[in-house]
Amino acid sequence: MNALQQEIAQLIIDTLNLEDVTVADIPPDQPLFGEGLGLDSVDALELALALQKRYDIRIASDSKDARQHFTTVATLAAFVQAQQEACKN
Amino acid sequence: MNVHVARERHWSTQKERGSLFLMRLTALSVRLFGRRLLAPVLYLIVLYFFVSARSARRNIRQYQTYLADWSDKPELKPTLGKVFGQFIAFADNLLDRLDVWRGRLRFEQVQLVDPSGIRPRLLRSQHGGRGEILVVTHLGNPDVCRAMAELGEQVPLNVLVHNRHVAQFNRLLGEAGDRSMRLIQVSELDTAMMMDLSQRVERGEWLAIAGDRVPLHDGRRVTVNFLGYVAAFPQGPWLLAGLLRCPVNLLCCLKVDGRYRIHLDPFLDVAQWERSRRDAVIQQWVQRYADHLAGQCLMAPQQWFNFYAYWQPREKEANDAT
């Protein structure tokens, strides 16, 4: 798990106030929604707002696209990284 | 009655039939004839609506019955005249809305009941601070809130609407001379929309959203007891408030003795939930909102302008629950 992935896992825990869950409990490739961590669509919105605040990212209004980014910690990290690089250029 | 109610079409599929058609006609006629000449014409149109829209008649009768029973005021029981009276109140409401849009209804003509100073907060928030949420209702005349805000460009108020007729409404608003109201269509709370709304709130903009109509394609609804029977209310406004962690205020504008009175009531200082109790918390909020709404129905019994089937078809359950 790289640093950004760890950071995002911690952000998920803090934002959603997940008690009894540690960063180690959220492997980068574990699905966040449904079966995996068991988050729901409202959690997703809450998470999106937290990510927006922390990393100043934008998500286009194409919701299918957004859903893909939110699949796992790994996809979220990749998305955040891509956004940050896009901002730099 | 129950069978009919169950088959009732959802309000948002009904192309805002009465509303939009009447408004267009009214907008045109007010320009041509002026309000005083127009009133009798409009009453005729409403009479037509009254005669032709059987389900609307039935729904209003149901509302009046529930209100009378719930409040234990037999004098509110429906009669043909009282049901018609509610249609006429709707016609007056349309005329008033046009006055508001055309800037004819000034803030000075409106009485403000705002014991906790919500309007000053709204006016102040353009100079910094976070925005808040106003939950509005289809009881009375939500448009008059514009008179309250004295909407020039300087007052940061966004009105969120569910239906697809925004484009038509915007055009109509344009025809009526109003270009300052910001309508945002929200059919579903998705990530992009949430981010946009969150930024608006951070900039100090306020969001107005109806708390008494369930959107068609959004399954997020919660059923509570309203006037003694089970009715569905949207979760949307409350989810929005909880996600944005902002204060929620209730806005209701009623015409009492021929004069508009705006009631502004604080509802939640900060909307917040524990994740595991989210649904229960929202349910509590909505029940409290429905109780508040019921109290306001009593202040202006004929100004309930939800003409579609409001209550759930299985009617008796709520009674057992209370």
From TrEMBL, chain A:
<dbReference type="InterPro" id="IPR036736">
    <property type="entry name" value="ACP-like_sf"/>
</dbReference>
<dbReference type="InterPro" id="IPR009081">
    <property type="entry name" value="PP-bd_ACP"/>
</dbReference>
<dbReference type="Pfam" id="PF00550">
    <property type="entry name" value="PP-binding"/>
</dbReference>
<protein>
    <submittedName>
        <fullName>Acyl carrier protein</fullName>
    </submittedName>
</protein>
<feature type="domain" description="Carrier">
    <location>
        <begin position="1"/>
        <end position="84"/>
    </location>
</feature>
From TrEMBL, chain B:
<keyword id="KW-0997">Cell inner membrane</keyword>
<keyword id="KW-0812">Transmembrane</keyword>
<keyword id="KW-1133">Transmembrane helix</keyword>
<dbReference type="Pfam" id="PF03279">
    <property type="entry name" value="Lip_A_acyltrans"/>
</dbReference>
<keyword id="KW-1003">Cell membrane</keyword>
<dbReference type="InterPro" id="IPR014548">
    <property type="entry name" value="Ac_Trasf"/>
</dbReference>
<dbReference type="InterPro" id="IPR004960">
    <property type="entry name" value="LipA_acyltrans"/>
</dbReference>
<keyword id="KW-0012">Acyltransferase</keyword>
<feature type="transmembrane region" description="Helical">
    <location>
        <begin position="33"/>
        <end position="51"/>
    </location>
</feature>
<keyword id="KW-0472">Membrane</keyword>
<keyword id="KW-0808">Transferase</keyword>
<protein>
    <submittedName>
        <fullName>Glycosyl transferase</fullName>
    </submittedName>
</protein>
<dbReference type="GO" id="GO:0016740">
    <property type="term" value="F:transferase activity"/>
</dbReference>
